[in-house]
Amino acid sequence: MIDNNRKLLKNQAQMWDKLAEIDAELATDGLQHYNPHYSRNNNEYIQTLSGYFNPTAGKKLLDIGCGWGKTLISCGKEGMECWGLDISQVMLSKAKEKAEKDKLKIHLSLGNAAELPYKENSFNIVWGYAVLMHLPKSKAKETLEEIRRVLKSDGSAYLHFKNRIHLMSLVAWVISFFRKLLNKPISPIEIRRYHLSEIKKIVGKYFEQVEILADDFMIFPLRLTFRVSIYSDLFLTGVPKIKPDSLFNLLPTHLITLVDKFYDFLKRFANLHFPSLKWFCRDFIVIVSRPRVIK
Ligand SMILES: C[S@@+](CC[C@H](N)C(=O)[O-])C[C@H]1O[C@@H](n2cnc3c(N)ncnc32)[C@H](O)[C@@H]1O
Question: What is the mean pLDDT of residues 58-86?
Fold first, then answer.
């Protein structure tokens, strides 16, 4: 069992290294990378983050699965003390390079989210975006336990989860059915999805306060690609490749802009006025605080 875990971790690290070598930004952002409304520059990204927490100077931030350092660098520029952990050495080298270019001091560690190399009660904010979804559910639970340990008693963690009740779950299920039929190996970084009630149950075990927000309301993809996405390549062939030219929009650009705005409206409506709608969003941000004292 321990050997299987080590083997999976090694495969995951190798895959992320490979993806980071090809294109770290596309590897972390996925098809979002091609969304013109996606927050690309620092100011826009800080605004997006501020929708969740205040990047206050002097506060300690830990980014789990930090990738090339997007969050660490933006928060570092706001004066936060930044720590980042990632399983991929190549991702961390990119983060180090970018931080040095901006003359920022960030603390980077190579490691596994489920075994955090930090003392208990260390961080005001823990951020984990698009990382728990790549872990087997048992490892995601261990990671939550670790976050509970390293978070300060008055701190909060902001964790991204993928929703199971979504069209993309069905697509993923069909792809994995055919992969099994064709005897193709499952990607070591396949995506795990959760029901809202499942998240409440798992997370509630470690934190007294849990708030679940809709993060993205994409219902149907607006941009498609045959071979562009390293993710879809992974699913189809197991080999990451990028051919950006093959990206195409499913609707004219002005309609995509409109539909993007509609998705954004749904997200705000669900979060502010109609919580039941959250059941159907694509992504959640789960805000947890008041780590439980476990004796
Ligand atoms: C989709 S990327 C997201 C990166 C970043 N959080 C962002 O939003 O830009 C997932 C990141 O998690 C890292 N990762 C995957 N499994 C991990 C694990 N078990 N422990 C730590 N990091 C992991 C990958 O190397 C990769 O950098």
Answer: 97
Residues 6+ positions from 7 with CB-CB distance below 8 Å: none
The total number of residues shown for the chain amounts to: 295
Task: Tell me the best of 86, 89, 91, 132 to mutate to test the pocket of ligand 1, counting ligand atoms within 8 Å of each CB and taking the most.
Answer: 86
Residue 40 has pLDDT above 70, yes or no: no
Residues near 246 by Cβ (< 8 Å), separated by ≥ 6?
225, 226, 227, 228
Distance CA 56, CA 58 (A): 6
Buried b (16+ CB within 10 A) or exposed e, 198-237: ebeebbeebbeebebbbbbbbeeebbebebbbbbbbbbbe
CA 129 to ligand 1 center in whole angstroms:
8
The pTM of this model reads: 0.91
- Residue whose structure tokens are 């698009």: 130
Rounded to the nearest integer, the mean pLDDT of the chain is 86
Centre of ligand 1 from the C-alpha of residue 66, in Å: 6
Candidates 3.40.50.1820, 3.40.50.150, 3.30.870.10, 3.40.190.10; correct CATH number of 2-291? 3.40.50.150
Tell me how far apart the alpha carbons of residues 42 and 12 are, in angstroms, rounded to a whole number: 29
Task: Give, using CA atoms, the residue closest to atom 2 of ligand 1.
Answer: 28
Q: State both tokens at 228.
A: 């562009």
